[in-house]
Predict the structure.
Amino acid sequence: MPTQRPDVAWVLGDPAGIGAEIVAQSLVNPELRAMCRPVIVGPGWLLERGLRIAQVTQQITPCRPEQLAQLPADAIPLIDAGWPYQEIPLGKVSKAAGCLAMQMLQTGITLAQKGLVAAVVYAPLNKEALKQAGNPYGDELRLIASWLQESEVGEVNVMDQLFTTRVTSHVPLREVAALLHPERVLQAIRLLHQVLLQARITPPRIGVAALNPHGGEHGLFGNEESEIIAPAIERARELGIDAQGPFPADTIFVRARRGDFQGVVTMYHDQGQIAIKLLGFEQGVTVSGGLSIPVTTPAHGTAFDIVGKGIAHPGAFQAAARLAARMAGSTA
C-alpha cells in the first residue's frame, strides 16, 4: 500500500443519522484506501455502532493526534476526544446530537489547522440539531469559516467532474434580482475558479448563467445580463479566468455536459441545484469553497428515515472522500 497517501479526517457526522454506517462501509473500499488514509474522528462507541449496522469488520487503532505520524501506513486511526457514551436515538433531531456533531467537526478542522491531516470530509449533519446546539449560523459552512476566521466563502456543488456555485443562495426568489451586482457575481466566479484549481482541474473553464428567460433577449425580459452579469464576466477575464456567458439557464448545463466548461456559476439556488441533482443525487458532493483547507461532504442529508436499517448508500460520501483526497496538498 502506498506510503505517500494524504491523511484525510473522516468525521462521523450527526450521530442520529446514517453517518457512522456510510463511513463504516467506506473503510473497506480499496479505491479510497489507495487514495488516502482515513483518520476517523468521533467516539469509538459511535463508530462501533456504524460498523455493526453496516456489517463491516475492520480493525481500528485509537490514538492521540500527535501519534498519527508514528502509526503504520496501513493502520486506520481513530481520534476520540474522550466523548462519553450517550443515548442518542436514531432518526431524531436533538440538541445532544447537534452538540456531539459540532464537537466532532471542530476536532477534524483543528487537525487540519495543525497540519495533522491534509483535508476533511464529514458525514451529513442536521441543521436543526446544530441550531439547537448553539450554531449561530444558518449552515455548517459559516460555522467552519468562523473557526478558521475566514469570510469569503461559498458552497460549491459537484457531480462527477461538473462543479457549480451560485451568486445567491437561501433567499426568496423575489429578492434575487435586487441582490445581484457585478462584484458579487465576480466573487462567485473567482471562488469557483479557485476550487477547480484545488481539485486539480486545469485549465478551468467556467460558464456563467443568465438570470432571465432566454438570457434576457437583449433587454426584452430584463437587463441584468448586460448591466450586471456581463461586466462581471469581463472583469474575470481581465484577471485571467476563462469565464464565458451569460448563457440561458435552460441550455447552460447542456453545454457543460458536452464539455464546454467544467464549472457553472448560477444566479440563484434552484438554477443549479435541480440540474446537479438530476445528474446524480446519490453521487453529489458539497465543497466548502474559499476555506484555507479542503472540506467536503455528501450533498444529501442525514436520512433519518432509513438510518439503522443497513441500506444507506455510501456513494456520495465516497465521492466526497475521493475529492477531498484529490484536493489535499493542492497549492492553488
About this structure: The chain has a mean pLDDT of 94.
